[in-house]
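Problem statement: downstream parser choked on a complex file, so we are re-checking the raw output for the iron/sulfur cluster run. The parser issue turned out to be on our end (a line-ending mismatch), but while we're here, posting the original submission so the record is complete.
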Amino acid sequence: MEFFYRELRRQHRVLMEGDEPAGGAWNFDAENREAFGKDGPDPLRSPPRRFPPDATTRQVLALVEDHFAKHPGALHDFDWPVTPTDAELALDDFLTHRLAEFGRWQDAMWTNEPWLFHSRLSAALNLKLLNPRRVIAAAEKAFRSGRVPLPAAEGFIRQILGWREYVRGIYWRHMPGYIGRNALGAQHALPDFYWTGETDMACLRDAIGQTWRYGYAHHIQRLMVTGLFALLWGAHPRRVHEWYLAAYVDAVEWVELPNTLGMSQYADGGLMASKPYIASGKYIQRMSNYCAGCRYDPAQRAGPRACPFTTLYWDFLLRHEALLAKNPRTVMQVRNAVRLTPSQRREITDHAARLRAAIPAAT
Ligand SMILES: Cc1cc2nc3c(=O)[nH]c(=O)nc-3n(C[C@H](O)[C@H](O)[C@H](O)COP(=O)(O)OP(=O)(O)OC[C@H]3O[C@@H](n4cnc5c(N)ncnc54)[C@H](O)[C@@H]3O)c2cc1C
Ligand code: SF4
């Protein structure tokens, strides 16, 4: 993706100074991606602009209520931009109030804070209410006029010019076969709580709860909470794909599928991502306040308070030891598993098996 992105930057003259990238670097990730301190996000920041449903939207909401009353999800908080004019206002609101802090807090999560510093523009982009060129040009202009720092503008532009275009290429280049891939041979059903939000795991309860309330979760919630759990659980990638396609207001198969099958579930065997995105509960603890309000302990991998992410992370390492040992980006993680004694291995696999038996599957 990085080289593809650089090529598009050159080709479309985005954030360039002559032949060189603005600021002398292509990527400012090292200055981005912090976690909030214990006080959490600034309570005085502006909330995203809302778009109360107009008459047409209200009619559609009523229609959905009539026909799909039993489907998961709620309608009462619907406030998405649904016209090009609204979408333009949403873009302006993001550029004015959140872009400057976007990169810094891009990966951070906080209980009951669905939006943080994200743009909420994906649905408008995918529905063609907003042209991605327009969004990229507006973010660059905000940087050139001194309104936002370069790392923030570059981090945001990379998501659209880089990731969004890259996944589009993956989808159209590799479909229709892509959807059938299952490189890790994952066969489990998705846990039922994905459809109800009823779980005692605080991180999943928050991410899934806001998903069914707003149709939204930000990228790290999708990748490193719901996606990570499904990957460690060994859920069949087709079931995971069906869930993401059903759950999000921005879900359009060409964007959703490579993100789910490739980036999140590694079902394409590394075509999209250079390694499976695996982590224990400690990653979630570092990037959020979820664990502070959870009955589990992310540092424990077995026992009554063991965090299910941590147990399943170790179980995943053991199940895929040979594959992960061959990948230079995961070899260090496997080394920790290699050091486990036979009784430690048994303790992990037994606890993982108990978890699988205790968590009901979706029907
Ligand atoms: C498992 C999984 C499923 C996903 N499904 C979808 C989907 O169905 N539709 C969708 O638009 N995005 C999807 N994404 C990508 C990303 O999570 C969303 O685009 C983002 O969370 C939307 O929120 P936002 O508009 O506030 O984005 P911001 O964080 O503000 O990012 C800005 C914009 O960059 C683009 N973008 C960022 N990351 C990606 C990415 N990985 N791929 C493509 N575009 C990206 C989006 O257009 C987004 O609006 C998925 C990611 C994962 C891990
Ligand atoms: S302890 Fe584990 S399950 Fe609970 S919030 Fe933290 S990561 Fe999630």
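For whoever reads this later: Strands lie at 16-17, 20-21.
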